[in-house]
What does this fold into?
Amino acid sequence: MSPSDKKKLSIISFSGDFDKLVAAFTLACGSAAVNYEVNIFFTFWGLNAIKKKTGRRFTGKGILAKTFGFLMGGVNNVPLSRLNFFGTSPKLMSFMMRKRNVATLKELIDAAIALNINLYACEMSMHILGISKDDFIPEVKEVIGVANFLQYSEGGDRIFI
Amino acid sequence: MSPSDKKKLSIISFSGDFDKLVAAFTLACGSAAVNYEVNIFFTFWGLNAIKKKTGRRFTGKGILAKTFGFLMGGVNNVPLSRLNFFGTSPKLMSFMMRKRNVATLKELIDAAIALNINLYACEMSMHILGISKDDFIPEVKEVIGVANFLQYSEGGDRIFI
Amino acid sequence: MSPSDKKKLSIISFSGDFDKLVAAFTLACGSAAVNYEVNIFFTFWGLNAIKKKTGRRFTGKGILAKTFGFLMGGVNNVPLSRLNFFGTSPKLMSFMMRKRNVATLKELIDAAIALNINLYACEMSMHILGISKDDFIPEVKEVIGVANFLQYSEGGDRIFI
It folds into this structure.
């Protein structure tokens, strides 16, 4: 079976919310586990999920990019889409995920990489936010725009999370 | 025409926001009404929509699960995705829906059941939140994971709301 | 090639958040640019994107509709899905988009019109919110319900943003 015969699922990961990232990566890993070809296209706040784990926030060039950088704290600083309890909820949910032996977000991202899920970063968002490919983990395959996303996801489902 | 020849639409109902639930059920019921096979897979906050109407919130085992249970008030306690006006907006929107003779969320859920829409609950979210199938209305068909969701939704569109 | 042979992408634009509208229109315009047939179905808060630029908010009939009208400020008053910084973030992001030579939301909407993207408004949301077709820009093609949306989007992907 050639790669192009595989079922395909492509996720546009727009939200940087902790729970939505967990949902996106769970769907992605579960699909890859049953032999789907999976693409994740990170855009806007979703870029937080593929940020290098340096402990530093994104620091675009210029004061405006820095202001947005403050909102882009990386995967360890993503909020919950609901009541965020001043930053405690994601920690609480992570704790419960560990307690219940459910993979945490960090483990899900590692699993996605191990399962050869294709990780793409959105060129336009990076441009607006003033960040570069060097800000991302090396497993990010390519920086692409809408045309390439459409091409890579052609023939499968596209889901916006 | 066999069931597998029907057009198919599968909704991942992730959000517990009142307006998004209204959108999800309107799309689901409208699709079932024109003879689509419709699946709704409730996950995370979306599980609120299929909670038993006991007036009680989800009460998982343990203090942490209870804390999240506080966020899971069931379908009568879901907030609006926008300015929630301290809980009045969903009531206001419900009032307007009744006034305009538009089906309310409760009526939409009843319609979904009458239209034989398949309601599924996400195993992993329930595990994290410490809730069980007994917490749901009896019309919930099955508790499933990603692999089964992919199988049941195969051949149709998948929409994340 | 007849129109029906074209690849097709249909977006349900539910959110009135500035960043999600930018994402929706970027995806829409990028798809139309590579010859996709593109439909956008505006519902709930998404209707803000196609509001006439009169400077006035939607003003439904009756006090309740007016209350919701307050949340529907039109495309110049849409908030950011994340920390809104009391309304400054969309202005800031617009400024950065201009600075980086990325099309602004207003330009993206103009581009969508120039690219013959089909703009539809959701009948039910308009009914709930008490607004009429006259409140929209004239390029809105038709006011439709779920059945027509399914028909027009048949054979392509459907994405909820």
In short: Residues 50 and 111 of chain B are 13 Å apart (CA to CA).
